[in-house]
Design brief:
mainly alpha, three-stranded antiparallel sheet, 6 strands
Length: about 190
């Protein structure tokens, strides 16, 4: 059996080019973030290439904690905040919003995904902020639901946080990307 030439391989992969670029961009952006952003669990110091970038993470973490607390308080009168980042229930379970919960990583990945996809800059310039708004809203919803669900089931935290909502977040990014590729960007020639 004869091996396909590089040209034949390139031609056979052409219909999947956007998805391949998506997957590569997602992996590269994710690992770039993981290896350049360093912070402790308390979020007291967050560094990027050694530079202290704690302030935006701190501001956003406090904001998210306050927003999630407000939402949870609409449904439960057993909730309180112990500090600017921690939401607790009378049952003793609760959450702490750290720098990694800010949603900035997903917003960075979103930016990378749209910057690397083929398409016009006019569409990208208005669709990038829409993606950021969706990241922000989904992040609040994600933390709200995790917080609400762990009141009665604290043992569910890691499953909800590390698996279910993490992958739903990436699924949301993929869905937004598909909307951009299929509906927003002008038709792109296949060359």
């Amino acid at each position: 059996m004869k091996c396909p030439s590089l040209r034949q391989l390139s031609e056979s992969l052409k219909p999947y080019r956007d998805v391949i670029v998506f997957m590569i961009t997602l992996l590269v952006a994710n690992y770039f973030w993981k290896f350049t952003m360093m912070g402790d669990e308390d979020g007291e110091v967050v560094k990027w290439f050694g530079l202290n970038v704690t302030a935006p993470f701190d501001i956003l973490s406090r904001h998210i904690a306050a927003a999630v607390y407000w939402l949870v308080d609409l449904f439960r009168d057993t909730v309180y905040m112990t500090d600017d980042y921690s939401i607790r229930f009378d049952s003793g379970s609760g959450t702490r919003i750290i720098w990694g919960c800010s949603g900035l990583k997903q917003s960075f990945i979103w930016l990378c995904l749209i910057l690397t996809v083929r398409g016009g800059w006019k569409q990208k310039l208005w669709f990038i902020p829409i993606g950021w708004i969706c990241c922000y809203a989904f992040n609040i919803l994600r933390i709200f639901l995790i917080t609400l669900l762990i009141e009665q089931h604290p043992d569910w935290f890691h499953m909800l946080h590390d698996y279910i909502f993490k992958y739903l977040f990436y699924g949301m990014l993929f869905g937004l990307w598909v909307i951009f590729v299929e509906k927003i960007r002008p038709s792109v020639s296949a060359n």
